Amino acid sequence: MQSGNVVISGMGVISACGKNISETRDTFAAGRRNGSETTLFETMLKYPVFEVKGFSGGDGKFMRTLELAFVTVRQALEDSGLEDKLNDFRIGVCLGTTVASQLNDIDFYNEYKNTGSASLCSVERYLKGNLAEAVSKKIGVSGLACTVVNACSSGTDAIGVGLSWLRADLCDIVICGGADELNRVPLAGFGSLGVVSDSLCKPFDKDRSGLNLGEGAGVIIIEKEGICRKRGKKTELFLRGYGLAADAYHLTTPRPNGSGLETALARAMDEAGITPSQVAFVNAHGTATPDNDLVEGKVLARVFGAGLKFLSTKGYSGHTLGAAGGIEAVFTILGLCGGWIPQSAGFEKPDDTIGISPVTQKTTISGQYAISTSLAFGGNNSAIVIGKE
Amino acid sequence: MQIVGMGVVFNRGRGVQTLEKALEEGWVPPTDSTYSVAEDTLKDKSVLKEMRRADKFSKMACFAAYDAFVDSGLGNEVKSSLGIILATAFGPHVTTFRFLDDILDYGDTNVSPTVFSHSVHNAAASYIALVLGARGPTLTVTQFAHSFHQALIIAQSWLRERRCEYILVGNADQCGVVMEYICRQKLRLAEDGKIKPFLFSQRPCAVPGEGSAFFLVTEGKTEKCYCSVLAQTVGTQDMYLLDSDGMVGDERCYLKMAKGGIPVNSYTPIFGSMLTQSSFSCAAAALMLKNQRHYASPVQDNPFGANICRLTEEKETESVACVRYNCGIERSQITLKR
Amino acid sequence: MEDKKEQELDEIRKKLKELLVTNLNLENIKPEQIKDNEILFGEGLGLDSLDAVEIVVLLQRNFDLDVKNMNEEKKIFYSVDTLSRYILEKRKR
Fold first, then answer.
1. A157 backbone dihedrals φ, ψ, rounded to 5°
2. pLDDT digits over C64-91, tens only?
């Protein structure tokens, strides 16, 4: 196994917070929340959602999820200075998603259900739309490609897989993260589970009543430090560690004692060679469901102490499902590099049963390390440690 | 990386012994239009105790993974360091369509949360973790024809990183009526139920299948070991198992390999056509290496005179490669060694 | 009048038990084996949080009832009997 550091040389993001890094930063600085009823599809459901407004989603050749991913991959490649150098390296692509992996076109199925036959247009689009494969083809690389479908931790886990690939010397550079579009099917599904809020979400708040769905994509470019230095790209950012552990408890409820998350955090920090006291802040999963925030909050308090600076950015972006880990990795980097994190949008009243509260205003950050956590349905718990020189 | 336990669920039933019997028996026509897994195969309550709501997709994966664990002879002490990686081409699409039924029949506000929560790709891996009490890293991946290969690459990486000590890695794919309809429209289906892997046709015939095959892998050798497995191409092998099953169209790419006279074989006619077929080929390869036995090609139509196994016989074998092409003619190869 | 109410309640209990067994995939138990005062969650039938939201859908589809907030209406979901009485009461309105 290859030892040696893994650097982060570029990133791209698109979400309800903005179509790029700069717009996202402005949204955080202003504390702006862009949630509203969906305009993307017809539904009786009136929950507020976080759409990428004004994003056309391409010409229909690819699913919206892929178009969101393409935008951020382009941004990340430009940021890393790799756009015209891809053929010089072994490039891997590992991306997480939920919607793009599902054969769930309602019109196709409705036609088939009613008549016994249906046009296969949407099926063809699906078959050409494996996220990692489509991105690889789009940018013209033919190395490793893998799509992670670990529900809400897919994006973080895709970054973890990328890290493993680099350590195994299977690639020189990996484009990793996640993408997911707002879609009627998961909106109905999460609604039926009783975990979606009728109002803007309030992560970690005493009166929190559920999540808001969102959409977007977040991608980071990770590479071996030697490769990055040799090609003359300067970066101060490192992917220091990754941890993943299963609850083995229930299909939709997290293990009450949070031991899965605690294990994931411990593994990530162990890999990074750091202790909890060295963590400047945590970008929590913080969906604003009663269960997630209770379990996650208690674990954060237990591991880092009640003085931890942490936030949930889902008050700004919504819960972007398979994209969340990728988007939040970028958000974490923004905080670490910029030296500040925004208030945890939606939080007002502390919940005494959790024992820890997120930041309530724009907060200065100093320190070298930050963590992003993701918890998924089915009991996956993931954490990444990002470091700054 | 060593394979120390195996579990399979397929058209003929469940278990390594059932697989061995099927390899000895050869081709048998499917009981209906697809190589489906019978409901009776998935009824063992000792495995299903936490799974009353689970759909067929999750059940197939659970049985195969559970059996792989039991087959390994390992005990409960490994479960805190037991990872799971599931590869699937289409996920639990039958359940997804059931959820769409709910949306269409009852409206967006009146859909079943149970059906929804089972329609996500990672539900099966979650059930495996639950049934076995496995608390290590758990991952589900999808890459169409190369899904299983990708899963094996990750498994190899995780073991070398010591992310966990043992991993259950496998596939699960299902074929319901909608998928069968799609296959009928897009592929040429064999009306006699017979996949002919050595026709190397531009428009080969498929017979959709479903099932799950899981392997318990680890770095060190244990008392029980089938063979070692590598997710990379390494030199020339004693035997090449071809995943030619009609699923991705043009199979002339396999002909290039076979024309060279190298020993080739294919067991796809036993399992049915599946994009994650590679896992079943690996299961067959592992048995070949453990038993030092070649199993006759179940369907021997061979107009190009490829060097196939005509007989089942004892045969010393050091290595077997399982080769899969996708519709972009990109190749993946998994190499198994004695 | 009381007899009629009791009869209606009986019918609801019977239907509810059938729906619980079928919709929640309860194993090793037939509807007629479920006691009227069977506790739904924790002990008794041992249902969990996923069953709870499934029951909400079950009530919507079969009894045209809309449960807005399960947490607030927890006592209704205590047993087969409390749920049946709730259904009867809502039906009469």
1. -70, -30
2. 998 876 666 778 899 999 999 999 998 8
Residues in chain B: 338
Task: Search chain A and give the residue with CA nearest C58.
Answer: A192
State how far the alpha carbon of A231 is from the alpha carbons of A75, A136, A172, B225, in Å: 19, 21, 12, 45
Q: Which chain C residues are closer than 8 Å to B106 by Cβ?
A: 61
Q: Are B276 and B174 in contact (CB under 8 A)?
A: no
DSSP string, B217-263: EESS--SS--EEEESS--S--SEEEE--SSSSS--HHHHHHHHTT--
- Residue A169 domain-assigned? yes
Structural domains of chain C sorted by starting position, each given as residue range(s) with its CATH number in brackets: 2-92 (1.10.1200.10)
pLDDT at A1: 45
- CB-CB under 8 Å, A132 with B129: no
ipTM of predicted assembly, 2 dp = 0.97
In this structure, the strands spanning B138-142 and B82-87 are parallel
C57 and B113 within 8 Å at the Cβ level: the answer is yes
C50–A250 CB contact, under 8 Å: yes
CB contact (8 A) between residue B142 and residue A167: no
Nearest Cα residue in chain B from A146 = B143
What is the CATH classification number for the domain harbouring A125?
A: 3.40.47.10
Q: What is the residue extent of each domain of chain B?
A: 2-337
CATH code matching the domain that covers B2-337, chosen among 3.40.50.1820, 3.10.620.30, 3.40.50.300, 3.40.47.10: 3.40.47.10
Q: Which of A192, A213, A167 is nearest to A16 (CA)?
A: A213
Contacts of A253 in chain C (CB under 8 A): 48-50
User: Is A361 a member of any domain?
Assistant: yes
**Residue in C closest to B107 by C-alpha:** C61
Q: Given an 8 Å threshold on Cβ–Cβ distance, is C60 in contact with B52?
A: no
| C56 contacts A250? CB cut-off 8 A | no
Task: Using CB atoms, pick whichever of B106, B110, B113 lies closest to residue C50.
Answer: B113
Q: How far apart are CA A82 and CA A76, in angstroms?
A: 9
Mean pLDDT confidence for A338-355: 97
Written as tens digits, the pLDDT of chain B (338 aa) is 999 999 999 999 999 999 999 999 999 998 889 999 999 999 998 888 779 999 999 999 999 999 999 999 999 999 999 999 999 999 999 999 999 999 999 999 999 999 999 999 999 999 999 999 999 999 999 999 999 999 999 999 999 999 999 999 999 999 999 999 999 999 999 989 999 999 999 999 999 999 999 999 999 877 789 999 999 877 899 999 999 999 998 999 999 889 888 999 999 999 999 999 999 999 999 999 999 999 999 999 999 999 999 999 999 999 999 999 998 889 999 999 99
Say if A1 falls within a structural domain: no
Domain hosting residue A85, numbered range: 6-388
Cα A45 from Cα A37, distance rounded (Å) = 8
Helix (H, G, I), strand (E, B) or coil at B188: strand
Q: How many domains does chain A have?
A: 1
